[in-house]
Amino acid sequence: MPELPEVETIARGLAKRISRDVIESVWLGQQPEPLKSPASEIAAALDHSRILAVHRVGKHIVFDLEKPHVGRTLRSVKGQQPKKSRERTKLDRPNNDATHPQFIVHLGMTGGLQICEPQAEISKHTHAILKLASGRELRFVDPRRFGRLSVAVAFDAGGIEPLEADLDAFIPLFRSRKTPIKSALLNQKLLRGVGNIYADESLFRAAIRPRRRASTITRSQLAILLTSIKEVLREAIAAGGSSVSDYVDADGEEGFFQLQHRVYGREGEPCLVCKTPVKRIVIAGRSSHYCPRCQK
Ligand SMILES: [Zn+2]
Q: Less Cβ around it within 10 Å: N or C end of the chain?
């Protein structure tokens, strides 16, 4: 399942390759699951829009579109604050003739975005094809159909962005929270986009046990934790950068150069610091890996 660094890498790769291209037409498949917004709304927002930018919000890939001379309102998506979005939309608009819809892709477990030549064979799990003015196609392929496609204006994924968070925003997230710190890190309403692997790796670097109650962690430990989260994510993004083109190219084979995990997936193997075997426990249904000696 792609995590924040992979989604960031994919978004950067797409931005480099299809920004400024224009969507000439849209085909959407018959399977209902991938469509979070009605097919007619997705098609209307995308059709004849220019792709201004592609970027990541949490674990979502967001395409900022420009659709000139159409004054329609898009359905708001979950988590969006209507008042704020109206204000932002107004400010963002260079003039009243243009609307700025956004196309939002969540890859789910197995979703992928492929940039193909039109003659490339269409795999049977293709749920959307966007024909681009450059002659290429952008395809959304997802065998297990946990991925989601939607449209919005001023999309807000909820939570705070871990790479942009400062300590003043980070510390209050855990105040009086009795859940294990691991669960709090995975809570998308608090922190946007930190997944299982990077939560385990960050907690190891910060020497905090995953089952520790979030509210018992001191201010200085939280400061170290925030630094660890940023380090882990940035290292993973840097490692993923070299394989962008593989990922978004035709075959959609996952090509990520993995960050060297220090605890994740290393149950029973010696801790890289103290040689104690790494433990695996289950917290809220998710595997958690930690060193019982280094992490308190
Ligand atoms: Zn250790």
A: C
Specify the residue for token string 């997705």. Answer: 42
User: pTM for this one?
Assistant: 0.80
Distance from the alpha carbon of residue 33 to the mean position of ligand 1, in angstroms: 43
Structural contact between residues 109 and 82, judged by C-beta atoms closer than 8 angstroms: no
Going by C-alpha positions, the residue among 204, 157, 158 that lies closest to residue 181 is 204
Which two three-digit tokens encode residue 152?
């919005």
CA distances 34 to 18, 51, 146, 280, 296, Å, are 22, 21, 7, 33, 42
Q: Residue 248: pLDDT above 60?
A: no
Residue 161 Cα to ligand 1 middle (Å): 29
Cα of 126 from ligand 1 centre, angstroms: 45
CA dihedral in degrees (149, 150, 151, 152; nearest 10)? -130
pLDDT in tens, 142-187: 999 999 999 999 898 889 999 999 999 999 999 999 999 999 999 9
